[in-house]
Amino acid sequence: MLVVFEVIGTPAPEREHRVQKLAELGFTWANLEDEAYWIDQIVLMEQATYNELILAADALWRVFDKAVRYVKGNRVIYQQLSIPEVLWDGLDRLELGDIGVISRYARFDFTVDQQGGIKLLELNADTPTGYVEASIATPWLCEQKGYTSPNTDMKNLIRAAWDIEAPDFAACIAYGQHAEDTGTIDALVAHSGRNMTCVDCLDLWIDEGVVKVGEQQIISSMFALYPKEWMGVDDGGEALSYAIEEQFIQLFNPLHAVILQSKGLQAMVWRLHTETSALFTAEEHKAIAAYMLPTFFSPELSGDYVSKSMFGREGGSVELYDAAGELEVKDEVGFDTSVFFERVYQQRADLPELSFAHGNRHLLTGLFVLNGTPCGLLGRAGGKITGNASQFVPIGVKTP
What we know:
- The chain has helices at about 15-25, 45-70, 75-80, 90-95, 130-145, 155-165, 180-190, 235-245, 255-260, 265-275, 280-290; strands at about 5-10, 30, 35, 40-45, 105-110, 120-125, 170, 195-200, 205, 210-215, 215-220, 220-225, 250, 295, 305-310, 320, 325-330, 345, 355, 360-370, 375-380, 390-395, 395.
- The chain is of the alpha+beta class and about 400 residues long.
- Helix 2 (about 45-70) crosses helix 10 (about 265-275) and helix 2 packs across helix 11.
- The two termini are about 15 Å apart.
């Protein structure tokens, strides 16, 4: 019988030595305060399932690309997708990226069960984290145990993407203080091969549409690990959206990544699929049926469903309902962004439960899409809802 995942190894007694080595490589948050964020074991995925996962991601990436082009310019749908109105003019006026690269830095999150069933939970096409874990830590950890990592090309794909985008600055909130976001920015910059300046988003200011840092340094091209939907909420968000719209600054990922980011896009794709829309080819309809979950703008499912904010992150806002339609569990740690954004309702597909040395955990399988290419597995192990308390575990691939 097919078993997709196998947990390999036992935690090494010299954890601190390995934590220090990972820090030297650029992964400085393997331990968070007194908690172990990194699980010192390896999850091996069966080769045929990995191959299918790549094909699924490739097909769904094309589906989502078409969906964004369908949405562009339709303000009724912008509102339905809970996209802040302050972004609408920019979405209408700016040109879309080439096919397949509306976002060059994205990650699908899947549930993959032990029998090889693959279902998409969501797409983070704007500001995914986990890049350092996937591109730096996973290959090293797999190599240490003699296993194959499919993640080794991630840095080359980032370099290719930023050769095209050519940002001069990279930014996140609390750069130099927030370990994960700072480390992510530093790794992306290093892998890009570009000479770039890293800044804190909170140090930026805008003068009649011109984005500046310091007294007079002008920023005209920037990669920002800053969720675009927050321009509808944050002080200064309207000024930044105006700067983007008027092209005083080019932001990467580009503005249209916010359409991909909205979980409402999954509901729209599902509706178009049920209507047998000619927007998608027969093969794309097959991929939607096989790998996407029925998702709706209103609570149409009577039981076994998930409710979550269209712009929720790190598990915040997620609620799981049982077969009787009763609330079973909700995320109590992450910020519930549904106070700002509408919810979607998605058929429930639970994460597989695996046994680790420190207990059982549910595995979320992330797969990056860099420069339009599916690549880079990211394992997150935690509760039924993958939130801030989840841990990183490297995923390798079993060789035949």
